[in-house]
Amino acid sequence: MKGYVFHGPGQAAWEEVSDPDLKERTDAVVRVDAVTICGTDLHILKGDVPEVRPGTVLGHEAVGEVVEVGGDVRTVRPGDRVLVSCITACGRCRYCREGAYGQCLGGGGWILGHLIDGTQAEYVRVPHADLSVHALPGAVTNEDAVLLADIFPTAYEVGVLNGRVRPGDTVVVVGAGPIGLAAIATARLFAPERIVAVDMAAARLEAARKLGAEAVADAREEPGQLVSDLTEGLGADVVIEAVGVPETFEMCTRMVRPGGHVANVGVHGKPATLHLEDLWIKNLTITTGLVDTHSTPTLLRMVAAGRLPTTQLVTHTFPLDHMAEAYDVFARAADTGALKIVLGGPQREVVAVGAA
Length: 356
What we know:
Keywords: Metal-binding, Oxidoreductase, Zinc
InterPro entries: ADH-like_C (IPR013149), ADH-like_N (IPR013154), ADH_Zn_CS (IPR002328), ER (IPR020843), GroES-like_sf (IPR011032), NAD(P)-bd_dom_sf (IPR036291)
GO molecular function, one term: oxidoreductase activity
Number of helices: 13
Organism: Streptomyces griseicoloratus
Family: Belongs to the zinc-containing alcohol dehydrogenase family.
Largest sheet: 7 strands, mixed
Mean pLDDT: 95
């Protein structure tokens, strides 16, 4: 089979790799029908994730068909169409028993495309399949489902739930890329008074408006002043960091009100300064986190009911073997307008979320 193989910072290729085999009785092998590219994959290619060894197939999100299962797998069988979660869970360790699957001690957590071969291939081996794949209802398309492998549970759990968004809140989302837009869509479920989106790209800010942001601000034009004006000088109740650079994290801590929450979702490759000399007195809660995907069954039900705007985030589609081209389009999002890219399945005309 073929897969997209990491060969070191700045180097990857779609090439022949070994077919995956069952290694444990809890494994499943899935034929990949649709995958997407994550911002974390770009971090890997930049060298920000040194745990990823050269020779690893990238990717941690997929939809496909189960072709083989180990003898201990009980929840799926060959022929089932499934969502492959970005997080693998053994189900037995302390963290899994608490629903904190991202911290699994039993050989799970974020391993696909990180510590073992991932999903950007024609087939993928999924360890601990009972808790790591989800059978899909027929009403949920591949494009809808693949966005529930990572960005929607990440935005919902690490952003909205960790930030404790409540009715009547002012919520600021810094970064209107795919994660930020998913945070806007899921924050709306809690009826905040307003959502403010901050980004530097006009197309992404327009997409944020279409997904429910009542106000938008260019990150280069003192968005803190807009937030102050909207809240009578108080500051935001919740600020969600969805970029992953020091400047945006520090911006978030300046925009939050005393007693508020800063929920960091972005993947940081460089140190950020925590200004405790200013923040110690503000009673802030600052959270970080790797997604656990405990919310995936709930989100799947909501997508099936038409309650989440998943495919609105898909701006480009490619055949599975056009991986290098898709990565280039995704990496140049400022020029291409890319939000989420889906590879595999039927192709369709590209329509940007922010387009009129």
